């Protein structure tokens, strides 16, 4: 079988067969994207966190978690393409996998990275028409999303973890997406995912605290606890998928933005 060279988002050259037939996705948002690209019968494996789209995804074999991969299951599935992500998956797992299989890595930190990822996955899977159609839809929506909340001049803390509390900092897709929507990230001056505690000076500036539904499953019972850290801020729940699932999931963002606007 002939192979074609593709450059992934980490600058690696990946030799992959044309129109791969047995694809494993190690990233929840990319699994959903693969379905939206029309690759239904070609998705051989997914992680246990790849839960969309339902019910279609349920028929795809689970290969473990994003960071707890079962190599024996992957071997049994005999993939001809594995798609991972620099942040979601461990370097050690990817190095093990790439010794035996073509592994294409995504690295998405800003909007342009996302649309590039969609385009390149379309190319490597042979579904370029579908990937261009998805990106064309994003171009149409951009004008409606750009600085959606800018007039409100909000300064937000976006929490992703508890014990210890961790927020979103710079150099992340969520940070850049908050900026894209016209929201100022209170921890945008710190890198990646800083641990946080009570800070009276910062508390004065924060208007809202977003409790994400993932990766830590924040819910209503945590609001009072977080409120004690930011007593002058409004604490609200947000759907983490719409802030971190880069890919076709964000085509459904418009309706959610209007819902979120009523809470803010």
List the helices and strands and how they pair.
Blueprint: E1 3-7, E2 13-17, E3 23-25, H1 28-36, E4 43-46, E5 61-62, H2 71-77, E6 81-85, H3 91-97, E7 103-106, H4 111-125, H5 128-145, E8 155-161, E9 166-167, H6 173-180, E10 184-185, H7 200-203, E11 208-212, H8 223-229, E12 234-238, H9 241-244, H10 253-263
Parallel strand pairs: 3-4, 3-6, 4-5, 6-7, 8-10, 8-11, 11-12
Antiparallel strand pairs: 1-2, 8-9
Helix pairs in contact: 4-5
Rg over CA atoms: 19 Å
Element order: H for helix, E for strand: EEEHEEHEHEHHEEHEHEHEHH
Q: Please identify the top-level CATH class of the largest domain.
A: Alpha Beta
Number of helices: 10
- Taking the alpha carbons of the first and last residues, their distance comes to 55 Å
> What's the CATH architecture name of the largest domain?
3-Layer(aba) Sandwich
CATH topology group of the largest domain: Rossmann fold
Describe this structure in words.
The chain is of the alpha/beta class and 264 residues long. It is built from ten helices and twelve strands. The chain has a five-stranded parallel sheet, sandwiched between helices. Strands 8, 9, 10, 11 and 12 form a five-stranded mixed sheet that branches. Strand 3, helix 1 and strand 4 form a beta-alpha-beta unit. Helix 4 runs antiparallel to helix 5. The radius of gyration is 19 Å and the shape is globular.
């Amino acid at each position: 079988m002939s192979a074609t060279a593709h450059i992934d988002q980490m600058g690696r050259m990946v030799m992959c067969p044309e129109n791969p037939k047995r694809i494993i996705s190690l990233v929840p948002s990319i699994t959903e994207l693969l379905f939206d690209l029309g690759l239904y019968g070609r998705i051989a494996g997914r992680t246990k966190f790849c839960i969309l789209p339902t019910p279609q995804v349920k028929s795809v074999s689970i290969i473990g978690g994003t960071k707890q991969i079962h190599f024996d299951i992957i071997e049994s599935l005999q993939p001809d393409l594995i798609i991972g992500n620099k942040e979601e998956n461990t370097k050690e797992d990817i190095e093990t996998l790439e010794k035996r299989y073509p592994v294409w890595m995504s690295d998405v930190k800003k909007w342009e990275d996302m649309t590039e990822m969609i385009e390149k996955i379309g190319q490597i899977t042979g579904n370029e028409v579908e990937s261009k159609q998805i990106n064309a839809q994003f171009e149409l929506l951009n004008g409606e999303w750009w600085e959606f909340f800018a007039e409100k001049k909000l300064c937000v803390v976006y929490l992703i973890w508890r014990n210890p509390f961790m927020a979103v900092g710079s150099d992340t897709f969520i940070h850049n997406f908050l900026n894209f929507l016209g929201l100022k990230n209170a921890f945008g001056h710190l890198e990646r995912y800083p641990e946080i505690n009570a800070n009276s000076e910062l508390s004065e500036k924060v208007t809202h605290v977003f409790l994400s539904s993932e990766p830590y499953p924040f819910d209503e019972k945590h609001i009072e606890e977080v409120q004690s850290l930011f007593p002058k801020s409004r604490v609200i729940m947000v759907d983490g998928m719409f802030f971190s699932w880069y890919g076709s999931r964000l085509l459904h963002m418009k309706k959610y933005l209007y819902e979120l606007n009523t809470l803010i």
